[in-house]
Amino acid sequence: MLFNSIEFAFFLPIVFFLYWFVFNKYLKVQNVFLLIVSYIFYGWWDWRFLFLIIFSSFVDYLIGLKLAGASSAIRRKQLLSLSIAVNLGFLGFFKYFNFFAESFVEAFTLFGTELDIARLNIILPVGISFYTFQTLSYSIDIYRRRLKPTSDWIAFFSFVSFFPQLVAGPIERASNLLPQFYEKRKFTYHEGVDGMRQILFGLFKKIVIADNCAVFANNIFNNYGDYSGSTLLIGALFFAFQIYGDFSGYSDIAIGTARLFGFDLKKNFAFPYFSRDIAEFWRRWHISLSTWFRDYVYIPLGGSRGGLWMKVRNTFIIFIVSGFWHGANWTFIAWGALNALYFLPLLLTNRNRVHTDIVAQHKYLPSIRELLQMGGTFFITLLAWIFFRSNTISDAFLYIQKIFTIALFSKPEIFPLKILLLIIILLMVEWIQRDKEHVLQFDVTTPRWVRWSSYYMVVVSIYFLGNFRQNVEFIYFQF
Amino acid sequence: MGKFITHSIFFVLGYLVLNGLFYMFVTTPAVYTNYVFNEDNMDQYHSFLVSDSHGACMKSIPNEYGIYNFSYRGDNYLDMYLKVQYLATQLSTEDTIFLNVDSHLFSNYRDKSSNAKKNIIYANYQVNNLLESEEVKQKLNNKKYFKYLPLLDIDYGVFYYDYLLPEKAAAYHRSFADYNEKTQRTKCQRRYETQYQNKTKSEKQEQYLEKIIEICEEKNIKLIGIQYPLAKMYWNMIENNNYNTTSLLKQYGIEVYDFHDLFFEQTDCFYDQDHLNLKGSKLFCEQISKLRRD
After folding, report:
1. Which range of residues forms the domain containing residue B106?
2. Could you tell me which chain B residue has the CA closest to the CA of A458?
3. Edge-to-edge strand order for the sheet containing B67-69?
4. How confident is the model at residue A408, as a pLDDT?
5. What CATH number is attached to the domain comprising B127?
6. Shortest CA gap A308–chain B (Å)
7. How far is B280 from chain A (nearest CA, A)?
8. Number of domains observed in the structure of chain B
9. Which residues of B touch A207 (CB under 8 A)?
10. Which residue of A has its CA nearest to B6?
11. Residue B65 is assigned to a structural domain of this protein
């Protein structure tokens, strides 16, 4: 079920009503209800893959219990390996089987041997990369003795399949989300209203920004050979805002929806396009994934503690793995490697934690220096997005090559002023609210008429300016 | 929770009030005056242009020549049928409908390209059996309920845009001649791929066209088929892919005027390979206005 669908518009209020008014007496009953509606939400897309999520939950639930009871280090390692093998096995099969098979064939073809390996017609189960990482973190945290396993299987299964964040994150840690299933949730007016605001702005980012940008980004990227450098630059800009609007919009709706049910999910985006260097960008973009890789891959590898070689190796590993997580294509790996190249100079000169505050805090405008830093960071991010969006690496290189020609200064063939204005408006409101959790978060002192007119303005903007012509799926569903 | 629900109800009520105001001040002029043909104007016009984007791109220029432009981009023959059956209830035997009979309108890609959800505004309940899409049928059933809730009806959004920014579409002022030959060829090729490559003749569109002919015969309204001007480069690409839209009209003895080569030597009359710009629209309207009976 898509958040921006009519089905969800009916699903959410019905579930909300039943959750707070019918199944609110007993915590267990409420959790069972959440589990059922989460499975309905997921099964709406393809019910067959429910078995996969149930199996994955079952394996990690059992392994969690066994890990707690195992005293020998070898036994604990075996159990953890089993969890990793099962989770990554599913992920590897459904997401990467064909990629490895094709790459294998291509590698042999280079040496003059023709191989014929069968390719499978595999459907990628929606959200597998997200819930797999969620269950993995549970087993790893128990292995590290940072988390106690749960014997409440309903709470655990509900944690894995919690519908607001099931298919595209934020990737929740068991240590944050699971305990929330043990305690009776309380509805507070402030949380409920703020959740609704976050959902509203999430819909704006998805329907107005991302889906409008998608039309032009798709056209330009799919026919990049026909356009001049200036148009290709606009295409890359549109993709940068398509992916931002799409994914951060989804996260906003997910976090807002969870708040309506009394849950607190992790922040996933913190106005990343106002970052002053690439390190800051990665602290603000897809935070739940970055921190997952940091805690479960980067730090166990030694992090930035070792010598030069170790720092370089670990940086490349984490960025390349992060790229590969996004999809079985060399373009994602190249995107990850490019980000590693951007990040390394900062790490090696110990400048990767220079910008940890909010840009131009307590000021209306940034300084020239900050503006240049933000512009520069955005530009290199834009170049990296070209790899992310292109169909092949050679397409990405050709795309970039065509940008940096004299035609960069020609009049663009495609110049949708309306969409560019929308992007500017988005950046303006984000700039004003950059010290908040989300754009529609208001202080209690803000007059009611200002708050309400803002809500109506967003609702009407979605209606007027949104792209309803195609029911565009969220990009991150494919990951 | 009580406060939350109360405020949510107030928010919804406020939204309904906003709908009412929107209906009065925006929907009425934008949809019921600007898009829907106003019955009060019926005496002013005796000729009507019914077409897809080929007519729509001329915006209000045909009106200046006494031909009411009743076209909309993306209309297929089902849409045109809905409009013609609406017009048929209003027109007299002295009136004329200029119908687009370009070959591409019989391509099966048109089955999917439809504005039926918008044009349901013209439909009466008798057309229910013609509508294949359940979504469109549902829209027809909900027509009266949603009339006063325009902010809940996303299908009309584009009309407000057209209304608030009339005649401002950049394309209208562009010239196909300004593109270099390579770009022109690419644009023609892309259009060809959309309309003809791996496409077949649509039986559905043929049936809808027959319905249009029948309704005009029944009401004794003069129907004239028009083939719109095309850029020479595009015509060269498509000439062997003719779905022969005109043969059906000829069977019924309906006049067809073929203007496809009218501007073969004037590429600056188009804004792309098959749509007229401001200059082309004026010249073309001069031609078709000569066919008026009134």
Report:
1. 46-144+170-289
2. B15
3. B67-69, B47-50, B96-100, B222-227, B256-258
4. 85
5. 3.40.50.1110
6. 51
7. 22
8. 1
9. none
10. A189
11. yes
